């Protein structure tokens, strides 16, 4: 297998998300995602970002906390 086909060690190939914009990062950032869509009724979710795990938690006061 030629080296130019290998992905860098931390990179992963993920297919495009259905309905995702192919615009600039700024355009994608400007479209908010409702927290209810991320949490799906759970009190917290674990997010994998570049191999690091973060926990997004909703408080009883209605605030969000992101911890490493």
From TrEMBL:
It holds the Pfam family hemP. InterPro entries: Hemin_uptake_protein_HemP. Gene3D superfamilies: Complement Module, domain 1. Residues 27-37 have a biased composition (Polar residues). Residues 1-37 are annotated as: Disordered. This is Hemin uptake protein HemP. It comes from Aromatoleum buckelii. The gene is hemP.
